[in-house]
Design brief:
Blueprint (H helix, E strand, L loop, with lengths): L3 E4 L6 E4 L9 H14 L1 E4 L6 H8 L19 E5 L14 H7 L15 E10 L7 E5 H7 L2 H7 L3 E4 L1 H7 L6 H5 L4 E4 L1 E3 L6 E3 L5 E4 L4 H16 L4 E4 L6 E5 L3 E5 L10 E8 L3
Parallel strand pairs: 2-3
Antiparallel strand pairs: 1-2, 3-13, 4-15, 5-13, 5-15, 6-12, 6-14, 7-8, 7-11, 9-10
The chain binds fe (ii) ion.
């Protein structure tokens, strides 16, 4: 098996060919894919029809899988379901349903699971059913933006901690958790500047769940987080993935942000299955 790597942008992202990720893969190929993941942050595989069992065994090669938060329809399983298809009935969910409002927050720039005590290494999303138009996922690099920050600001950021909160970020799109739901999801604190333990490259852990800089006044905190986000998302180094059925994309939640884009949920069905790998240092 010979892996073929084709960069997707100048700074991050790669299309990976020459491998069937549904079958058992030799250890040296896994090591190569893992190294490519650390270096490129986003890996795209095409023509890889997945079922749930295959996706789990592939995902476990990267590390332990998270269990999904109670508010997702696939709660308690290893899957975070992104879909307008009712998990029980198979019918399309009305566009104004609370479950679709919950998913609307995915259209804010974010990294997955930053609100959890244990950060995520990566997310793995497989396209099971995709609309013919719309529903792309966009990525930007928080590593590329870190590299471009002035030295004095890099020094200021070092040692800062950010509080990440899912209740806070869902509120931005008008979604309110019940008290019971909110109580089950306490916020978490993580270092603002993340250092990749393998490559040594640094990035900033920001995005929609980033509520505040710990210990800073609210205004100053909001200003810094908004500035960093604006610089990251105005970067020319973005990648937009237009999904085709059977695509599988892996992204590094420590070094990229992503967001969903709209599709016509009244007209088309969409089912994406996400597995999320914990970051165990
Ligand atoms: Fe996400």
């Amino acid at each position: 098996m010979s892996l073929k790597i084709k960069p997707l942008t100048a700074r991050f992202g790669a299309l990976v060919g020459g491998v069937d990720i549904r079958s058992t893969i030799a250890d040296d190929s896994i090591a190569q894919i893992r190294a490519d993941f650390e270096n490129h942050s986003v890996l795209v595989f095409t023509d890889q029809p997945m079922d749930d069992a295959r996706q789990i065994s592939w995902s476990e090669q990267f590390g332990p899988l998270e269990r999904t938060v109670p508010s997702n329809p696939a709660a308690g399983s290893a899957f975070a379901r992104q879909s307008n298809i009712d998990i029980k009935t198979g019918e399309t969910i009305p566009v104004n349903d609370r479950r679709m409002l919950y998913q609307k927050a995915n259209m804010l720039w974010h990294a997955d699971s930053t609100f959890k005590e244990t950060q995520s290494l990566c997310s793995i999303l497989s396209a099971r059913e995709v609309p013919p138009v719309g529903g792309a996922t966009e990525f930007v690099s928080t590593r590329a933006v870190y590299d471009e920050l002035p030295a004095a600001l890099k020094q200021e950021l070092e040692g800062l901690e950010v509080e990440h909160d899912l209740v806070y970020s869902r509120r931005i799109v008008g979604f309110e958790f019940t008290e019971v739901e909110a109580a089950a999801m306490p916020s978490a604190r993580h270092r603002l500047v993340q250092t990749n333990p393998i490559t040594g490259r640094k990035s900033v852990l920001i995005g929609a769940h980033a509520k505040c800089i710990v210990g800073w006044p609210e205004n100053r905190s909001r200003e810094l987080l908004d500035d960093l986000l604006a610089q990251t998302t105005s970067s020319e180094n973005s990648y937009r993935h237009e999904w085709r059925t059977n695509d599988v994309v892996i992204w590094d939640n420590r070094s990229v942000l992503h967001r969903a884009t709209p599709y016509d949920g009244a007209k088309y069905r969409r089912l994406m299955q996400r597995t999320t790998v914990s970051f165990v240092e």
